[in-house]
Amino acid sequence: MWRALVLTLALMAGAGQAQDLRFADLEGWAADDHAAALAAFRVTCDTDKARGLKAACAAAASATDARAFFEAEFRPV
Q1: 8 Å CB contact between 59 and 73
Q2: Do 6 and 76 form a contact (C-beta atoms < 8 A)?
C-alpha cells in the first residue's frame, strides 16, 4: 500500500513523469492492512513533513474507512 502513497507524494513534489494507475492495479492492495497504514499516516500528520498534506490530514482525522480514505485522497501512479 505504501508504494502508492510514496509514488504519489513523489509526483506531487515534481519528481518526474509517472503513469496514472487504478488502485486495483496495485498488487496486494485489497489485502493490505489499510487501518494500520491510516494510523501511520495520522502520525506523519503531526510532523513538519506533512506541510503539503493539510487536506489529507484533515480528512484522515475523521476517516472511519481506511481503504476508502486512501482511495479518495491519493492516486496511485
Answers
A1: yes
A2: no
Report the sign of the C-alpha dihedral through residues 37, 29, 50, 55, in that order. negative
Q: ∠ at Cα 29 (77, 69), nearest 5°?
A: 80
Mean pLDDT per block of 10 residues along the chain (77 residues) reads 50 62 89 92 82 87 94 88
Cell of 51: 506541510
CA-CA distance, 57 to 44, in Å (whole number)? 9
pLDDT of residue 70: 92
Please give the model's pTM, rounded to 2 decimal places.
0.72
Max Cα–Cα distance, the chain, nearest Å: 33
Closest CA to 44 of 36, 34, 35, 53: 53
Location of C-alpha cell 518526474: 16
